[in-house]
Amino acid sequence: MFSDIMKNVKAKSPLINVITNFVTVNDCANILLAAGASPCMAYDIREVEDIVSISQGLVINLGAIEDDRAMLLSTKKANEMKIPVIFDPVAAGASRLRNDLCTEFLQNVKFSVIRGNISEIKSLALGSSTTKGVDAADADEITENNISEVVKMAKSLSEKTGSVIAISGKTDVVADHQRAYIIKNGHPMMALITGSGCMLTTLICAYCAANPDRIFESTAAAVCTMGVCGEYAYQKTIDTDTGTSSFRNYLIDYVSKLDSEMIEERMKLEVY
Amino acid sequence: MFSDIMKNVKAKSPLINVITNFVTVNDCANILLAAGASPCMAYDIREVEDIVSISQGLVINLGAIEDDRAMLLSTKKANEMKIPVIFDPVAAGASRLRNDLCTEFLQNVKFSVIRGNISEIKSLALGSSTTKGVDAADADEITENNISEVVKMAKSLSEKTGSVIAISGKTDVVADHQRAYIIKNGHPMMALITGSGCMLTTLICAYCAANPDRIFESTAAAVCTMGVCGEYAYQKTIDTDTGTSSFRNYLIDYVSKLDSEMIEERMKLEVY
Amino acid sequence: MFSDIMKNVKAKSPLINVITNFVTVNDCANILLAAGASPCMAYDIREVEDIVSISQGLVINLGAIEDDRAMLLSTKKANEMKIPVIFDPVAAGASRLRNDLCTEFLQNVKFSVIRGNISEIKSLALGSSTTKGVDAADADEITENNISEVVKMAKSLSEKTGSVIAISGKTDVVADHQRAYIIKNGHPMMALITGSGCMLTTLICAYCAANPDRIFESTAAAVCTMGVCGEYAYQKTIDTDTGTSSFRNYLIDYVSKLDSEMIEERMKLEVY
């Protein structure tokens, strides 16, 4: 189902500029390379427009919030060029500054995809502020009981922003204004390493940059990739009797080893 | 002995804000998650007070020295809230700027714990400047001959600052103004990776944030955790015929796998 | 052949200050420690001169381009002290800012070694601008057909700058104005992790700082070290059925395990 999308990443090796936080930047660069893309992490305001002009995709990760000027300059350039821009509203809801910047970005930038945890997406969609730092609040967990409400919120945010919305967690949701997928891959150990979310956002950008006419499907393919690789990585962690740090390495390892058969064997995707 | 302290970290999952250097920040976030805490690395001066106001602990790591304004703003807020603030005076003694900032911090901030290598702590206590960059000077090694002098210095610095003092190295010392523990766990390979010290400081903060009434014991528990995990990680490095980089992963792996039995089996702690 | 050079690194444990980008800084610190050197990553303009004054080597990595003021201050101090300064012109050719800064650095700084991929070195030597972000352009690959031209360019750049030139890629070239080595070690998986180039530059600095009278040979030794460790790391990746992220760890592992016999057994170095 996603075979072509993945092949295009390796064939085109899109250059992705990532303006991101210093906590997980190395993981983001490595997952791009593992998938077959080429990373660049330029954020100096004197050059971001030059770098974006040779890129095929742009990631705006709000973690490194002090780079907001570079973010605005580069998104403007990327929108002019009509290349995919992916937004990761890290810890939206956790400070007034983050809320203000999210409002400013949503007003001024056309994002192809917005990817966050449920607390972050709720903060964008509803203005609620229950985010616990960079992690989702427990009260926000997606369950059988509230899934229809969550999908409705995602579709509504998509209609408002024109972006595909990706909500990651135990259950993942990918939605545009009229369609939604529910994806139930992944493993709880992904929440015990930093960077699972940032890496997913970056991977979505690589998939979209290589398939700019298939943003919705490419986003779903990237979400499935991370979830399935998380499952393989957990099995390897058990087999080698290691723990969370080795798991992080195995997660990236499997992105580098993955083919579409390995995804399709385990993929748990439903149209909602 | 430390069973409750460790259980509280997993049960409360305290949110720890860490203002730290860009070299080891990813390791610090991952060790917090491995221990069961929740990391946040906010340092933008426009939001640090907001983020500290929802946190249960704060780490000030002097590595990223250019964030000194964010450090001062956030410590003031944390002291008002009476949450634990842990200080890591990275490379104290290695430049005039670092010495000046240490003096300023010690005058204006109430730290629950100060954690450094012997050269850094000597620099704070005595004003000596023998630090070799971020590593302890060889001349400063703790031995049987000078241990009583080192403990006396630590107790005296604790009396002056009101902080628990943790000195890490081949022999670790944890002291307040009247008590001291000597801890002889760990492995020399811990000195062959970057971040052993930064990770320990961060782990101390998680333990203290989950046990704010037991700062002295929580600090000792975190020091034992790192030492014991270093020993297990070294054994795994030998078993897998790997080297220093894999050792770093195994160190964090064991923090994620550790229970109090695994600590108590190997713990070499003496009241001094 | 390189036995003394490697032994001197472990015996002297030179302090290396590295002004570098936030993407691969952790890997650079860890490879220095693995080789037996001592890393420091000071870049605050208020202290870089103090830190350089106690260092034995300095790395200027253009990735973190916004630190250009710290770079200029620290290189001036290092040149006064006559310690080796190694330049990594990351993504030279990819933006006007990078080209301008490279010109400024080459005019004002005496570099012992300049290390880049073929696109970056061409950009410095010829003013061409084909760099694809941080990766070499495919069109720039070194082949049997153009190797003599590449060596000639390297020698000419060495003559102009007074620096040893190291070009890394599938085939590596190390040249001064009259001599050149061709080195054919390494593995393609090195291009699938971030930091291979940055780590090599940093390792060159450690080798040169411990052997300041043998810059040409020390550079070649570091290039061979990385290539040979890449080969061992790839074999370990296959043996453990892992992928690119584990490969990165194994690469650093082998630097920590390497002795001169392990290098000489696999080294493919020719005088050109």
From TrEMBL, chains A, B, C:
Keyword Membrane attributed: no
GO BP: any one term: thiamine diphosphate biosynthetic process
Pathway info: Cofactor biosynthesis; thiamine diphosphate biosynthesis; 4-methyl-5-(2-phosphoethyl)-thiazole from 5-(2-hydroxyethyl)-4-methylthiazole: step 1/1
Keywords: ATP-binding, Kinase, Magnesium, Metal-binding, Nucleotide-binding, Thiamine biosynthesis, Transferase
Reactions that this protein is recorded to catalyse: 5-(2-hydroxyethyl)-4-methylthiazole + ATP = 4-methyl-5-(2-phosphooxyethyl)-thiazole + ADP + H(+)
Enzyme Commission no: 2.7.1.50
InterPro entries in UniProt: Hyethyz_kinase, Ribokinase-like
Cofactor: Mg(2+)
Residues the record lists as binding substrate: M41, G195
Enzyme class: transferase
Residues involved in ATP binding: R115, S168
MF GO annotations: ATP binding; hydroxyethylthiazole kinase activity; magnesium ion binding
Function according to Swiss-Prot or TrEMBL: Catalyzes the phosphorylation of the hydroxyl group of 4-methyl-5-beta-hydroxyethylthiazole (THZ).
Family matches, as NCBIfam families: PRK09355.1
Family label: Belongs to the Thz kinase family.
Listed name of the protein: Hydroxyethylthiazole kinase
